[in-house]
Amino acid sequence: MTTSIARIVLLITAVGLSACSTLNPPKPGDAAEYRPTAPVAPKPAAANYGAIFQASQSQGLFEDYKARRVGDLVTVVLAENTNAKKSSSTSTAKDSGVEMDVGNVTVAGRTLIDRDLTLFGASATGGRTFDGSGDSSQSNQLSGEITVTVAEVLPNGNLVIQGEKWLGINQGQEFVRIRGIIRPEDVSTSNSVQSTQVANAQLYYGGTGALADSNAQGWLSRFFNSPIWPI
């Protein structure tokens, strides 16, 4: 009786854990790694004699203003297009056979064979075959623009960018989140950079609301399709 109760409790706990993701959908600003970063206030020079020029806010006279400090804005042009396909096939076969036939056997001059039947004989055969195949394909395409902030300036001058974009449509919300590292040289004169030039890119696109919920499996169906289900 105790074992049955323990199994029921374990089943209910697993079902509850599998449904957590649907009960807690993402919200704007809930992920710290995608929040906008405020610019760092410049520190006054140790010896400031009242000059207008400030080294921390300097800009070249013939230089295009592009993102280069923490808190600056940069536009990421989403141009993601991936297409992958993989197939495999395996086939093996093996046949084996063993046969043993003992002929005439005589003991003290007498043949222990009756009507030409072999006294001792054995035979065995075996066969084994395996056929396996697999096919997988995936295609993704994402286009658009998202403006994010510079979160960190690395020692080598590269910029860590992060940000998110939420769009409310009817009964749901669509969101795009991106984080990665870019080179200042890749930022164009219009202060934009291609998403394909973002290193260590973390790009997410999804949605919440009635439309997203209708395209998702229920918690019970996801439980039976989870890896913990034994069959």
TrEMBL record:
The keyword Membrane applies. The keyword rRNA-binding does not apply. It is a lipid-anchor. One of its GO terms (biological process) is bacterial-type flagellum-dependent cell motility. Its main location: membrane. Keywords: Bacterial flagellum, Cell outer membrane, Cell projection, Cilium, Flagellum, Lipoprotein, Membrane, Palmitate, Signal. It is found in: Cell outer membrane; Bacterial flagellum basal body; Membrane. Transmembrane segments: none annotated. Pfam families: FlgH. Residues 1-19 form the signal peptide. The basal body constitutes a major portion of the flagellar organelle and consists of four rings (L,P,S, and M) mounted on a central rod. Assembles around the rod to form the L-ring and probably protects the motor/basal body from shearing forces during rotation. Belongs to the FlgH family. This is Flagellar L-ring protein.
